[in-house]
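Hi support team,

I submitted a single chain yesterday and got back a structure, but I'm not sure I'm reading the C-alpha coordinate output correctly. Could someone confirm the output below corresponds to the sequence I sent? I've pasted both exactly as they appear in my results page.

Thanks,
R.
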Amino acid sequence: ELPSPYLLVYCIKPFKERNRHVFLKGVPVTVHVEGIERNLRGFKVRPNTVYMMRITHGDFTWMVKKKFKHFEELHRDLLKHKFKARVIKPLA
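Hi R., thanks for writing in. Yes, this is the structure output for that exact sequence:
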Protein backbone atom coordinates (compact mmCIF):
# COMPACT_ATOMS: atom_id res chain seq x y z
CA GLU A 1 0.00 0.00 0.00
CA LEU A 2 1.24 3.48 -0.86
CA PRO A 3 1.87 5.87 2.04
CA SER A 4 -0.46 8.51 0.60
CA PRO A 5 -3.39 8.48 -1.86
CA TYR A 6 -1.83 11.60 -3.39
CA LEU A 7 0.89 9.39 -4.85
CA LEU A 8 -1.75 7.56 -6.88
CA VAL A 9 -2.61 10.71 -8.84
CA TYR A 10 0.83 12.25 -9.34
CA CYS A 11 4.23 10.74 -9.91
CA ILE A 12 6.24 12.82 -7.45
CA LYS A 13 9.86 13.34 -8.47
CA PRO A 14 12.70 14.70 -6.34
CA PHE A 15 12.95 18.49 -6.66
CA LYS A 16 16.44 18.42 -8.18
CA GLU A 17 15.61 15.80 -10.83
CA ARG A 18 16.41 16.97 -14.36
CA ASN A 19 13.02 16.16 -15.92
CA ARG A 20 10.89 17.66 -13.17
CA HIS A 21 8.41 20.23 -14.48
CA VAL A 22 7.61 22.77 -11.79
CA PHE A 23 6.03 25.43 -14.02
CA LEU A 24 2.96 25.32 -16.24
CA LYS A 25 4.06 24.90 -19.85
CA GLY A 26 3.73 28.07 -21.92
CA VAL A 27 2.62 30.18 -18.94
CA PRO A 28 4.90 33.10 -18.06
CA VAL A 29 6.22 33.87 -14.58
CA THR A 30 6.00 37.56 -13.73
CA VAL A 31 7.70 39.34 -10.85
CA HIS A 32 6.80 42.82 -9.63
CA VAL A 33 8.73 44.62 -6.91
CA GLU A 34 5.98 45.95 -4.65
CA GLY A 35 8.27 47.89 -2.32
CA ILE A 36 11.35 47.84 -0.12
CA GLU A 37 11.99 47.83 3.62
CA ARG A 38 15.11 49.25 5.19
CA ASN A 39 16.16 47.46 8.34
CA LEU A 40 18.33 49.75 10.49
CA ARG A 41 18.86 47.30 13.36
CA GLY A 42 21.79 47.76 15.70
CA PHE A 43 24.95 49.66 14.84
CA LYS A 44 25.52 48.22 11.38
CA VAL A 45 27.20 50.48 8.85
CA ARG A 46 24.97 49.25 6.00
CA PRO A 47 21.25 48.79 6.48
CA ASN A 48 19.64 45.59 5.21
CA THR A 49 17.33 46.22 2.27
CA VAL A 50 14.47 43.76 1.92
CA TYR A 51 12.59 43.65 -1.39
CA MET A 52 8.88 42.79 -1.31
CA MET A 53 7.84 41.05 -4.53
CA ARG A 54 4.65 39.68 -6.05
CA ILE A 55 5.27 36.58 -8.18
CA THR A 56 2.52 35.37 -10.51
CA HIS A 57 2.34 32.15 -12.54
CA GLY A 58 -1.01 31.41 -14.12
CA ASP A 59 -3.71 31.66 -11.43
CA PHE A 60 -1.14 31.41 -8.62
CA THR A 61 0.31 34.43 -6.79
CA TRP A 62 2.94 34.57 -4.04
CA MET A 63 4.21 37.49 -1.98
CA VAL A 64 7.85 37.05 -0.95
CA LYS A 65 10.49 39.11 0.80
CA LYS A 66 14.15 38.72 -0.15
CA LYS A 67 17.37 40.47 0.84
CA PHE A 68 19.83 41.69 -1.78
CA LYS A 69 22.26 38.94 -0.75
CA HIS A 70 19.67 36.36 -1.87
CA PHE A 71 19.75 37.85 -5.38
CA GLU A 72 23.55 37.65 -5.36
CA GLU A 73 23.38 33.97 -4.36
CA LEU A 74 20.79 33.26 -7.07
CA HIS A 75 22.93 34.99 -9.69
CA ARG A 76 26.00 32.98 -8.65
CA ASP A 77 24.02 29.70 -8.74
CA LEU A 78 22.57 30.48 -12.18
CA LEU A 79 26.06 31.17 -13.53
CA LYS A 80 27.25 27.82 -12.11
CA HIS A 81 24.28 26.04 -13.69
CA LYS A 82 24.93 27.71 -17.06
CA PHE A 83 28.59 26.65 -16.90
CA LYS A 84 27.68 23.06 -15.95
CA ALA A 85 25.11 22.85 -18.76
CA ARG A 86 27.77 23.91 -21.26
CA VAL A 87 30.30 21.37 -19.93
CA ILE A 88 27.82 18.47 -19.81
CA LYS A 89 26.68 18.79 -23.44
CA PRO A 90 28.16 16.02 -25.59
CA LEU A 91 30.71 17.08 -28.16
CA ALA A 92 29.44 16.60 -31.70
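A quick pointer for reading it: The chain has one domain: 22-88. Let us know if anything else looks off.

Best,
Support desk
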